[in-house]
């Protein structure tokens, strides 16, 4: 039987900020794969089942190439030409092009390397908690905590000088946040590219101790390095920030789980995996069939766009019993929040270190942390944003 989802939902259910839109949950209950007619008339597919999502992510017959991604799930752009990804922007390339860029980076983001960063993450976290405590009670957890910590760490890794950070972060926020108007967005994007070009030139002239300087010692061109830096920044800023803010919100709304984590800091590793699964802020990606593929009893014909709903797949009851319950003691790993296959998140060990440090440190510093507004007044990102999350999270505590 062929199940069809006619439009991509643009909102979540009121009062359920952590759950994928109910239309997607219902689609998965019908079938792990549904037909999805795009607004421009393209007949695509929507995948919501865990097993099928995972197998497509690992299947080289499905492409991530930017120039093939011509259909938008909510906007009719008509018959447009999409240029290929610029040099270095390997998230939207297939192998072998993709591995030219990913390979030299892998060794810089290993578990061991990221563990060495733990102390620095602890320091930066403590500094932000100090500042928050001093200025409060009441704070916006997004601006005081969730955004600056991952931003500082990724800037340090890349070697962005301290004095450039403010302006730089502002521009990145604008073009990733889904809030800026078109003109502002384009201006912020251009400013970021210009800055990265200057940064690459500076690292070539005067290499320092950071990932970007290390990469200048290779056959990668300036343009390629600039593209790689852009991917690292855009992937590393916004995702972790939204996990920290939304994760805190989810814990505050699940007081028993919050108490369990507070009582046992040893639970942090498991808790972070469960929050990743439960929230899945990087909620959906696209793949294009390069040839006809038989899947789940259907033929995906060459050239067809497939939407992979990672957040719905991470709520598949056949893989995760009671999937809509946040259970920090959950043992069944294997969530897809960092994707799977050749594009599986390069920065996942860094993100894990940041979250394993930051959540317990926050809870420890503020034993009475709570929302400063009713939960239904917390300003969430629109469902149209690529990364789900929170605009601001007003919190307070007993001084
Ligand atoms: C790729 C999620 C943090 C760097 C990805 C993908 C996902 C993801 C789902 C794969 C997309 C696809 O399959 O097409 C997340 C989440 C994060 C996070 C949920 C935070 C909790 C980071 C950080 C970095 C980073 C901190 C910084 C270095 C990258 C890069 C890629 C990537 C470079 C592209 C990999 C490739 O195409 O080979 N991330 N990410 N991510 N991520 Fe992350």
Folded structure, characterized:
- It holds the Pfam family p450.
- Belongs to the cytochrome P450 family.
- Keywords: Heme, Iron, Metal-binding, Monooxygenase, Oxidoreductase.
- This is Cytochrome P450.
- The chain is an alpha+beta fold.
- It contains 15 helices and twelve strands.
- It has helices spanning 22-30, 50-57, 97-106, 111-116, 118-135, 141-146, 148-158, 165-176, 182-205, 211-215, 222-252, 255-263, 268-279, 310-313, 348-365; strands spanning 33-37, 43-47, 62-63, 139-140, 284-289, 293-295, 298-300, 305-309, 370-371, 379-380, 390-392, 394-396.
- The strands form four sheets. The protein has a five-stranded mixed β-sheet, sandwiched between helices. The chain has a three-stranded antiparallel β-sheet with strand order 4-12-9. A two-stranded antiparallel sheet has the order 6-7.
- Helix 5 runs antiparallel to helix 7 (148-158) and helix 5 (118-135) packs parallel to helix 15 (348-365).
- It is globular and about 60 Å long.
- The termini are far apart.
- It binds protoporphyrin IX containing FE.
- The site of protoporphyrin IX containing FE has 25 residues, from helix 3, helix 11 and helix 15.
Protein topology:
Blueprint lengths: L21 H9 L2 E5 L5 E5 L2 H8 L4 E2 L33 H10 L4 H6 L1 H18 L3 E2 H6 L1 H11 L6 H12 L5 H24 L5 H5 L6 H31 L2 H9 L4 H12 L4 E6 L3 E3 L2 E3 L4 E5 H4 L34 H18 L4 E2 L7 E2 L9 E3 L1 E3 L3
Parallel strand pairs: 2-8
Antiparallel strand pairs: 1-2, 3-5, 4-12, 5-8, 6-7, 9-12, 10-11
Helix pairs in contact: 5-7, 5-15, 7-11, 8-9, 9-11, 11-15, 13-15
The structure holds protoporphyrin IX containing FE.
The site of protoporphyrin IX containing FE has 25 residues, from helix 3, helix 11 and helix 15.
